[in-house]
Write a structure and sequence with these properties.
About 90% of the residues lie in helices and about 0% in strands. Helix 1 packs antiparallel against helix 2 (about 40-65) and helix 1 (about 5-35) packs parallel to helix 3 (about 70-165). The longest helix has about 100 residues, at about 70-165. It is mainly alpha-helical. The protein has helices at about 5-35, 40-65, 70-165, 170-190. It is built from 4 helices and no strands.
């Protein structure tokens, strides 16, 4: 391994130390903000360590074909110390800002969907109910007027057909059924 490759490797390990420290802060802030249940903390830690390991070894393979030397751990340690000394607060603040921006965008989209889609649908539903209710009231009103206007003709028709009634006998079951229908109608449509 040449000196140039060694410096390149230690620089890459320095960057990987900074990256895994930044991921640690991001995971820490997200788990605090999302209020994850305690049982998910080991799962999140496992995911963090898997991602960190993959990152370090990918950079190691890229820089010196995966050869592990003592200065690799030194580079990672220097990167971690550098990050926590100079960059940790910036990354935490940026993560919190990003969370606030995502929440604001989510609220904006939810409010937009509510205003542009949900409220018009509810308004159309209410308007339809009002119009149908009005039409039903008009239909009932006209029905009662027609009944009032036809009542004298009905009485006249009954009077004229009275002599013929004795020739047409209505069965008892039909009379009972008619009585039940009239009773049900009066219950439903009378005041």
């Amino acid at each position: 391994m040449t000196l140039n490759v060694q410096f390149h490797t230690i620089f890459m390990m320095f960057l990987s130390g900074v990256a895994i420290s930044a991921m640690f802060d991001v995971f820490r802030v997200l788990s605090g903000k999302l209020k994850l249940p305690r049982w998910t903390i080991p799962l999140v830690d496992t995911v963090y360590w898997i991602v960190a390991t993959i990152l370090v070894f990918r950079l190691l393979i890229y820089s010196n074909e995966g050869q592990v030397r003592m200065f690799i751990f030194l580079g990672i340690g220097i990167g971690i110390c550098f990050y926590f000394a100079f960059l940790s607060q910036i990354v935490v603040h940026l993560t919190l800002l990003l969370i606030r921006v995502v929440i604001a965008i989510y609220k904006f989209i939810a409010k937009t969907v509510e205003i542009l889609i949900i409220k018009p649908i509810i308004g159309l539903y209410r308007l339809t109910v009002i119009i149908l209710g009005f039409l039903l009231a008009v239909a009932i009103f006209l029905y009662r007027i027609v009944l009032q206007l036809l009542y004298p003709l009905w009485r006249l028709l009954l009077w004229m057909t009275r002599p013929v009634h004795k020739y047409f006998v209505i069965p008892d079951w039909l009379k009972k059924l008619t009585g039940k229908i009239v009773t049900l109608y009066r219950r439903l449509f009378s005041k």
